[in-house]
From TrEMBL:
Cited InterPro entries: AAA+_ATPase, ABC_transporter-like_ATP-bd, ABC_transpr_MalK-like, ABC_transpr_MalK/UgpC-like, Mo/tungstate-bd_C_term_dom, NA-bd_OB-fold, OB_MalK-like, P-loop_NTPase
GO molecular-function terms, A-Z: ATP binding
Protein name: ATP-binding cassette domain-containing protein
Keywords of the record: ATP-binding, Nucleotide-binding, Transport
Statement: the UniProt record of this protein carries the keyword Membrane: no
CDD domains: ABC_MalK_N
Keyword Transport: yes
One Pfam family this sequence matches: OB_MalK
Species for this entry: Streptomyces cylindrosporus
All copies of domain ABC transporter, residue ranges: 4-236
């Protein structure tokens, strides 16, 4: 087991172009499950490949434990990688696929068999060890691929979107299993995904990347509750946080017909930037939907444009009757859908439930 440290790591594919990974500093603790998260092309796979030694860094260094592995070939790094594409040997049984690397390493047969048995029990796949990949479901093949990494007892597991070929139900099942396995073994794991739900539910911590640049590192709850900038605010959470570019007033912001006071510090930081605007983020569940008979509570007057009923939760897309900087607004409705298209909707907002960002830099304002 070992910690993993990226120090000022940069990798540029095209000379003169934007780096795929730009001066990355990241400390992953021993035994931690770290998720690298971001949209397609943000550089997360490149980070993993740099760590595995499948790509060379242009500058910076990578340590696994106390060892500087920056210039070591992949086989000397002692990491095990699970890819999106399982690449199992079709002519070998699940057990032989799992034990293949052990055979190559000439591990005594009895010990190798014990290892395979152990991996099979951790991943709950003893029933199909004798079967070939073709007769296994996607989820089962995924477990065999994970088992193959597991038997090697590496210093770290590196996983690149290993669940992306599975259907929704299997994804949920398998991700719980990977987390259980990781907690059981306590081996440092770096897991790449673009799926924020997967990241939130699996990671001890998340590292959010955009355009090769690290945006925020933290526990899933922290990142959700206090996104460092508008990008993270909009990326984490589903449906996405509403982001409004609002005019500043003397004491706060003008949200349609509502004047919402802002904390002193935020107001001070916003005015120091000499911007007449501020970006306010509100999650769909942070609006308080007022009952129709309430005409006194100060509220934002909306009109329902569309109703989205997911079964468990109802969201409405609405527009403001008046107000600058307000576009499509998504609001989570409490309970069952009672609103229809064109219906009025009044929502209130507590200042504490607003996330405030600079209209100039996009950074969170304290
Ligand atoms: P995805 O989720 O789509 O896999 P990602 O976040 O993992 O994306 P990377 O695969 O790390 O992103 O790619 C980051 C950037 O580097 C992209 O712009 C990509 O086009 C570029 N890139 C990656 N590998 C190479 C390569 N071998 N040659 C040239 N450019 C590359």
């Amino acid at each position: 087991m070992a910690s993993v440290t990226f120090e000022k790591v940069t990798r540029r594919f095209a000379s003169g172009g934007r780096p795929a990974v730009d001066s990355l500093d990241l400390d992953i603790e021993d035994g931690e499950f770290m998720v690298l998260l971001g949209p397609s092309g943000c550089g997360k796979s490149t980070c993993l490949r740099l760590l595995a030694g499948l790509e060379d860094v242009d500058s910076g260094s990578i340590h696994i434990g106390v060892r500087d592995v920056t210039h070591l070939p992949p086989r000397e790094r002692d990491v095990a990688m699970v890819f999106q594409n399982y690449a199992l040997y079709p002519h070998l049984s699940a057990a032989d696929n799992i034990g293949f690397a052990l055979r190559i390493a000439r591990m005594p047969r009895k010990r190798a068999r014990q290892r395979v048995q152990f991996a099979a029990s951790v991943l709950d796949m003893e029933d199909y060890l004798g079967r070939r990949p073709r007769s296994l479901s996607g989820g089962e093949q995924q477990r065999v691929a994970t088992g193959r990494a597991l038997v090697r007892d590496p210093r770290a597991y590196l996983m690149d979107e290993p669940l992306s070929n599975l259907d929704a139900r299997l994804r949920v099942e398998t991700r719980a299993q990977i987390v259980r396995m990781q907690h059981h073994l306590g081996i440092t794991t770096v897991y790449v995904t673009h799926d924020q739900t997967e990241a939130m539910s699996m990671g001890d911590r998340l590292a959010v990347l955009k355009d090769g640049v690290l945006q925020q590192v933290g526990r899933p709850r922290e990142v959700f509750a206090r996104p460092a900038n508008t990008f993270v605010g909009g990326f984490i959470g589903s449906p996405a946080m509403n982001l409004f570019r609002l005019p500043l007033s003397a004491e706060g912001v003008r949200l349609g017909t509502l004047d919402v006071p802002l904390p002193r510090g935020v107001l001070r930081a916003a005015t120091a930037e000499r911007s007449a605007r501020i970006v306010v983020g509100v999650r769909p569940e942070q609006f308080e939907v007022l009952p129709p008979q309430d005409r006194t509570t100060p509220a934002l007057d909306l009109v329902v444009e569309a109703v989205e009923d997911t079964g468990a939760v109802v969201y409405v897309h609405a527009s403001a009757r008046s107000g600058e900087g307000l576009g499509d607004i998504v609001v989570r409705l409490p309970g069952r859908p009672t609103h229809t298209q064109g219906a009025p909707l009044r929502v209130a907002l507590r200042p504490d439930d607003m996330h405030c960002f600079s209209a100039v830099t996009g950074l969170r304002l304290e």
